[in-house]
Amino acid sequence: MNMDFERKLAIPMEVKEMYPLTEDLRQVFERRDKEIKGIFDGTDNRILLIIGPCSADNEVSVLDYFSRLRGLADEVSEKVYIIPRLYTSKPRTTGEGYKGFLHQPDPNEKPDLFKGIIATREIHMRTIKETGFTCADELLYPENYKYVDDLLGYVAIGARSVEDQQHRLTASGIEVPVGMKNPTSGDLTVMMNAITAASTGHSFIYRGWAAHSKGNPYAHAVLRGFNDMRGLASPNYHFEDVMRLKALYDKTELPHPGVVIDCNHCNSGKNPLLQGRIIKEVLSFCKDSNDAKSLVKGFMVESYIEDGNQKIGGGVYGKSITDACLGWKKTEKLVKEIAEML
After folding, report:
1. Domain residue extents for the chain
2. Residue 92 has pLDDT above 80, yes or no
3. Do residues 47 and 98 make contact, with C-beta atoms less than 8 angstroms apart?
4. Is the pLDDT of residue 258 over 80?
5. pLDDT, tens digit, for every residue of 8-21?
6. Are 51 and 82 in contact (CB under 8 A)?
7. Per CATH, which fold does 12-341 belong to?
8. Confidence at 95, pLDDT banded by 50, 70, 90
9. C-beta of residue 285 within 8 angstroms of C-beta of residue 226
10. Tens of pLDDT along 273-306?
11. Is the pTM of this model over 0.85?
12. CA–CA distance, 134 with 119 (Å, rounded to integer)
């Protein structure tokens, strides 16, 4: 093979033995898991808000952001349920650029995947311990899920991964809610096929084992916009898009139909300042349509301490080094406005 093998990485069981989940943290996980599932099965009518940095690039600033989010979450908790984004792996369209905390816990140093695995588990554990949040992360590498499966509250399958068989089958064995994004082409049938696959039990190879999954009843849709034939960003969060999705759900027997609206990416053309407008439009038409209201479970928002983004080494504390984010002051205002609209 045209590659070098640097070292054998620790398996998930070994990493968990090094950094075990305490009983207190386990109880937080179980309570949050029940609450999040309640939103998707309709027993809890709060709106879910999956919010945070585009990618976790600095442990200090990310935990600082989460500590601010904790107070805000408590303030709006009767109407809005917050899950922080703690995205430790960053998909890259061409393979170039910062690939996330898992690859480089320090973006200014060379990749170190062993350190990244340890750092990923540590930051998830610190977040639960220090803020009481369980977080969302993207399942970029299905085989890595076992390193944090006892810590994550929500899992996202990205637009470029949703057609992959291993992602679909792994999602079928995950116990927490999994959001399946529409592909970059915008074909909703591809996403629906992924949800159906994730909702069903399978036998497959996982980390060298013959694995048997039971199916994930909480697999659901995430609308993130798409690229049209000219490569231009096109949204799919409007009322007509949600109703089109409902019609596809109506043809299935999926147990918990639902959709989370991703307010960045192609829905906003990666302009983070438009995220609030998207949420307000969706909440507005949900007031006029019970069908839309029952289907829309929440939103994804990219937010950090400072507005915008910067290059690696830019030196601005709490400013994204990947996609541009909404700054904290605007985020605080937006979350309060969401609660007022509900």
Report:
1. 12-341
2. no
3. no
4. yes
5. 888 999 999 999 99
6. yes
7. TIM Barrel (3.20.20)
8. low
9. no
10. 999 999 999 999 999 999 999 999 999 999 999 9
11. yes
12. 16
298: tokens are 């929440």
Task: State the amino acid at position 339 in one-letter form.
Answer: A
Considering the chain, what is the average pLDDT of its residues?
A: 95
41 to 20, 156, 191, 247, 329: CA distances (angstroms):
30, 18, 20, 19, 33
Side chain identity at 179, as an amino acid letter? G
* Tokens standing for residue 137: 């992360």
SS3 of the chain: the string is CCCCCCCCCCCHHHHHHHCCCCHHHHHHHHHHHHHHHHHHHCCCCCEEEEEECCCCCCHHHHHHHHHHHHHHHHHCCCCEEEEEECCCCCCCCCCCCCCCCCCCCCCCCCCCHHHHHHHHHHHHHHHHHHHCCCCEEECCCHHHHHHCCCCCCEEEECCCCCCCHHHHHHHCCCCCCEEEECCCCCCHHHHHHHHHHHCCCCEEEECCEEEECCCCCCEEEEECCEECCCCCEECCCCHHHHHHHHHHHHCCCCCCCCEEEECCHHHCCCCHHHHHHHHHHHHHHHHHCHHHHHHEEEEEEEECCCCEECCCCCCCCCCECCCCEECHHHHHHHHHHHHHHC
